[in-house]
From TrEMBL:
The gene is aoxR. Signal peptide: none annotated. It comes from Achromobacter arsenitoxydans SY8. Pfam families: AAA_lid_14, HTH_8, Response_reg, Sigma54_activat. This is Two component, sigma54 specific, transcriptional regulator, Fis family protein. The keyword Disulfide bond does not apply. Keywords: ATP-binding, DNA-binding, Nucleotide-binding, Phosphoprotein, Transcription, Transcription regulation.
Amino acid sequence: MIQPYVCLIEDDAIMGESIVERFRLEGIRTDWFSKANDAKTAIQTNSYGAVISDIRLPDLDGDELYRQLVAQGCTLPPFILMTAYATVEKAVDLLKLGIKDYVTKPFEIASLIQTVQDVLPIDVSPESQTELGVSQAAKNLHRLVPRVAGRASAVLLIGESGVGKEVLARLIHSQARRETATRPFVAVNCGAIAPTIAEAEFFGYEKGAYTGADKVRKGYLEQADGGTLFLDEVGELSPSLQAALLRAIQEKRIRRLGAEHDTHTKFDLICATNRNLSEMVAAKSFREDLYYRINTVTLEVKPLRERPEDVLWLAKRFAASIAERLGEPAKTLHPLSLIRLQTYPWPGNIRELHNRIERACLVSQSNMLMPGEIFPEEPDGTHYPDELPTQEEATLTAYQQVCERLYIEEVLRRHGGRIQETADVLSISRKNLWQKMKRYGIDSKNAGD
């Protein structure tokens, strides 16, 4: 994700420092100037997403700076002016001038941040769309990543199984700024480690610590030194391991099995769970002190059924990546498939979506994935007419007619052939539905009305 970059012009040192610090916490990079003429050169040479300027400045008023830049023919980012002397007439004049917005002093910095975020250009680069999705829920998560990456002592990710918690964890890891370019990301599935070897896996061991320990081995916590430790299914940790982990997190050191001295280790901690840890704390199955230690910030990843916009986005990405792996042209999704993908409840979330798309890409002999190939278990899911026009030979009218017929058949099937219910869903009259069924040869007897 490209970090927002703005120009701030404020001659009040206390106010300026306060705004810069808050912008930094919001993930907004800021160039701060106390004089308009100093900022003028920077605005002409840098690609700012917005300019925030006080009106009253020691060398040149903010609105006059804007006028001069416009007169010079400069392509300007949105201008936001801060003023303690706002009147209705002044506000109208500023907006007529071309100023994007203004805020009146004194103001809450939160309101200024919201004003700035509203005018910042939306990042539509490929990097901004590769991890989480295009839904509002995904965008909200994406916006929070720079605020917690490398800054929060611990982040807890909650959500159903398969929603993409590890993808979010890796994004947080990648956004953390560190002096070293290569930082380890150690992912641990806490539910997949046998209790008998859990301590050795987490803390490591010295040579000769036990039978079969023929060499020194670093544990997960030591492997993550300088990077990120991601504990998936953290709710599955045993009580004894919870206690040992709490000590390691608090003291930032561990002791390998068989060692005489502690080893220091420092890492960003990200935990994930599909369980309700607060209920586990109440039931005494998860340590309360560890719970508060690992959830400095909690981020919820919504299930796929609550963000249908991401379903199609992900499905197309999966189809493209699978085609690239197989060395084949990417398959497209039939309109009926698009509809079914968005109406399906996705109990297995993203993991299930990928599985279904991959299977369909492997078995389909066409360049277009039909609903029956993605959902083969559904009744009559594979019985689609052979005369479906291909993308190369279909006229728009012919393609629309086939799609309309297939959709009517699909809705009839889902509603047990009940004509009135189907007509209501399609937002057409019962008579209109009968006419379309007759035109397309859809058997009313088979409809079961």
